[in-house]
Write a structure and sequence with these properties.
The chain is of the alpha/beta class. Among the domains are: 224-412, Valyl/Leucyl/Isoleucyl-tRNA synthetase, editing domain (Isoleucyl-tRNA Synthetase, domain 2, Alpha-Beta Complex); 618-709, Isoleucyl-tRNA Synthetase, Domain 1. It contains 23 helices and 23 strands. The strands form six sheets. Strands 8, 9, 10, 11, 12, 13 and 14 form a seven-stranded mixed β-sheet that branches. Helix 2 packs across helix 18 (598-607), helix 17 packs across helix 18 and helix 20 (646-664) packs parallel to helix 22 (690-701). Mean pLDDT is 92; it is low at 709-716. The structure holds zinc ion (2 copies). One zinc ion binds next to loops.
Length: 716
């Protein structure tokens, strides 16, 4: 601490701690407010100014709610399992437990120095066995309810981290952790059946206060589409089922495409004339990532299957079947019907392979390009003359159902959640394998199933968990029959612990259940949850799923965990680019605290622009905030018994109204601008009473709490 204002800050931090200023009370008679920020991942690099901005919004709102008489819960914790810590522990040669403790201590000190009004009596740490006991407990409840299963599939695999990644963690074909290229690998994987909750997750969006763009992102992620499943007869006798959102375009189907891995191909290999070509194509495909395979812009490739023909069920026409990498086994049924006249991808494919293109919807010029708009149906038998897709789809589905060749159905873009990692630093999956009894859950009274101590926690060379090397962990007795059994050695993914942490804050030390019911009844749902846009799909959908599941089994009292959600924008470097070590444009928040004091940092991150938008860091604006706060501190010099002028009094009232409203709508920058102009007005009048100064300081204090404590010392 270099400056006297840092000492003043320390004095007030201690005072707040001593008088438990920010601890929520379980006095259920008071009106409550539960403000939640996304708890940090305690990385070795410490906090970033982005964290400060992310927490400052609700910090201001929670401080305001306390002044308004609410019983405010504004908790903090650490989402501390996962690869970044494990990888740096390996690099540094220390245990991830030691490193996690060190990082948490560092974050705690930093958060305290900035003066956030968190309730430190309720800290949760997802790596604490007393916490992950309940993460495992919820997992077992899901297992009991049929929401957990194992399956062998092609998975996204990062060869560098040696882990299986979910689709969410490998967007763009890159590993979310190390940014290496992800490859496809056949693996035995644990899944959570999140797709069973797709409709509930969509319906739940009706009753919550999320901005329209956030709702839309979640809807797109879940990606519900309505359409039909249709059966196509193959020349070999088998039927091939496909899903389409446009069953009304069936008369325009001129070919089909299968995923290269489709099992039908190997099954009838003897009847197929060009298996060598097909196998070579498939081999090539396996080297591509899902992202590469499904990119819209790339040139279409494929191979016609010689000797296998399909029959269009609506007109009996024989049509060829191709394999192509843009059709994936994991999506839909692994095969599609192609309508080149009205689908861009099918159009390109048909053009390249010289396949017929039949117009069934009028309105475009199919000699030039696919027509994807609406219009009158033609060349379509019983559908001819219908003029909009709503009617034609309905009629097509009822005809399919009548003839027994298809039925109405829905599909989701969201896939089941790949829920395991072959690493060390995570929650052990509490399942035991017995030769006689199969998969047996670890009994509830044996939770937590603790991570065993381990010297060398590097992953195995074949992507096997390091836990598999510990015989004393692996070998166990079957809880059902008492025979020899083996433990699962995979761990849960990093998203597990954060899927329910907001419940543990309500009752962090309970060892009988994850949270007391009465406490949940009072505190839930979270009144306001603020965080980053990057967590709107993954973390928020996962945690809404867990919460909804807990609701369905009667363990929580609200179907949705969060009443309201907002998101802050990023802080960019002063060069307008994303802050990164390699660019050298990172600002350390504590450097600003050392130089100007925490009040300046806190005021600046809320002043730098629209809270929801990204904005570049500006040292000169930081200095501007410092000058403003100095001028506020100097107001004590013009305090007198003389009241303000009527005009200034009006300005005061207006400022109270504006600052109050602006905080609610997260327009922190305009609230601060309003206080800046009020300061100017006070100076031009030349005097104010100490009561008036108090009003001013209260308005400012949600951003600059130390100034309120000691105006004079905040001055340099
Ligand atoms: Zn990786
Ligand atoms: Zn057994």
């Amino acid at each position: 601490m270099k400056n006297d204002f840092n000492q003043t800050e320390a004095k007030w931090q201690n005072k707040w701690k001593d008088c438990k200023a920010f601890e929520a009370s379980d006095d259920f008679t008071k009106p409550k407010f539960y403000g939640l920020i996304e708890f940090p991942y305690p990385s070795g690099t410490g906090m970033h100014v982005g964290h400060i901005k992310a927490y400052s919004g609700l910090e201001a709102i929670c401080r305001k709610r306390r002044m308004q008489g609410y019983n405010v819960l504004f908790p903090i914790g650490f989402d501390a399992f996962g690869l970044p810590t494990e990888n740096s522990a390996i690099k540094l040669g220390i245990h991830p437990r030691t490193l996690t403790n060190r990082n948490i201590a560092k974050f705690t000190e930093q958060l305290n120095r900035v003066g956030f009004s968190f309730d430190w009596s309720r800290v949760v740490d997802t790596t604490d066995p007393d916490y992950y006991k309940w993460t495992q407990w919820i997992f077992l409840k899901m297992f009991e309810n049929g929401l957990v299963f194992r399956d062998t599939t092609l998975v996204n695999y990062c060869p560098n981290c040696r882990v299986v990644l979910s689709n969410e963690d490998s967007q763009g074909g890159k590993c979310d952790i190390c940014h290496s290229d992800v490859i496809q690998k056949s693996k035995d994987v644990w899944y959570l059946r999140i797709t069973a909750y797709a409709d509930k997750l969509l319906q739940g969006l009706d009753g919550v206060d999320y901005p329209a763009n956030i709702k839309q992102m979640q809807e797109n992620w879940i990606g519900r589409s309505a359409g039909a499943f249709v059966s196509f007869k193959l020349s070999v006798g088998e039927e091939l089922c496909i899903y389409t959102t446009r069953p009304d375009t069936l008369f325009g189907v001129t070919f089909m495409v299968m995923a290269p891995e489709h099992p039908v191909i190997e099954k009838y290999a003897a009847k197929i004339g060009n298996m060598d070509e097909i196998r070579a194509y498939r081999e090539n495909c396996s080297k591509k990532t899902e992202f590469e395979r499904t990119q819209l812009v790339k040139e279409k490739t494929g191979v016609k299957i010689e000797g296998l023909i399909a029959v269009n069920p609506v007109n009996g026409k024989e049509i060829p079947i191709y394999i192509s990498d843009y059709v994936m086994m994991g999506y839909g049924t692994g095969a599609i019907m192609a309508v080149p006249a009205h689908d861009e991808r099918d159009y390109e494919f048909a053009r390249k392979f010289g396949i017929d293109i039949i117009e069934v919807i009028k309105g475009g010029d199919i000699s030039n390009q696919a027509y994807t708009g609406d219009g009158e149906m033609v060349n379509s038998g019983f559908l001819d003359g219908l003029t909009n897709k709503k009617d034609s789809i309905k009629k097509a589905i009822s005809a399919l159902e009548e003839k027994g060749i298809g039925e109405e159905g829905v599909q989701y873009k969201m896939k089941d959640w790949a829920f395991n990692r072959q690493r060390y630093w995570g929650e052990p999956i509490p399942i035991i394998y017995c030769n006689k009894c199969g998969m047996v859950p670890v009994p509830y009274d044996e939770l937590p199933l603790k991570l065993p101590p381990l010297e060398n926690f590097e992953p195995g060379t074949d992507g096997e968990s390091p836990l598999a090397r510990i015989d004393s962990f692996v070998n166990c007795k079957c809880p059902k029959c008492g025979g020899d059994a083996r433990r699962e050695t995979d761990i849960m993914p990093q998203w597990a612990g954060s899927s329910w942490y907001f419940l543990r804050y309500l009752d962090p030390h309970n060892d009988k259940c994850f949270c007391d019911t009465e406490k949940m009844k009072y505190w839930m749902p979270v009144d306001w949850y603020n965080g980053g846009m990057e967590h709107v799909t993954r973390h928020m959908i996962y945690s809404r799923f867990w919460h909804r599941f807990l609701y369905d089994i009667g363990c929580v009292n609200t179907p949705e965990p969060y009443s309201k959600r907002t998101a802050q924008g990023m802080i960019l470097g002063s060069d307008g680019e994303k802050m990164s070590k390699s660019r050298g444009n990172v600002v350390d928040p504590l450097d600003v605290v050392d130089l100007y004091g925490a009040d300046v940092l806190r005021t600046y991150v809320l002043f730098m622009g629209d809270y929801g938008q990204s904005a570049p860091w500006s040292d000169s604006s930081v200095k501007g905030c410092k000058r403003f706060l100095d001028r506020v501190a100097d107001l004590t010099e013009i305090v007198s018994g003389k009241g303000v002028t009527p005009q200034l009094e009006r300005s005061f009232h207006k400022a109270v109204k504006k600052v109050t409203d602006d905080i609610e709508s997260m327009k922190f920058n305009t609230a601060i601008a309003c206080l800046m102009s009020l300061t100017n007005e006070i100076y031009s009048v030349g005097h104010l009473t100490s009561d008036e100064l108090k009003v001013f300081i209260k308005l400012l204090s949600v951003r600059a709490p130390y100034l309120r404590g000691n105006q004079r010392a905040a001055r340099r």
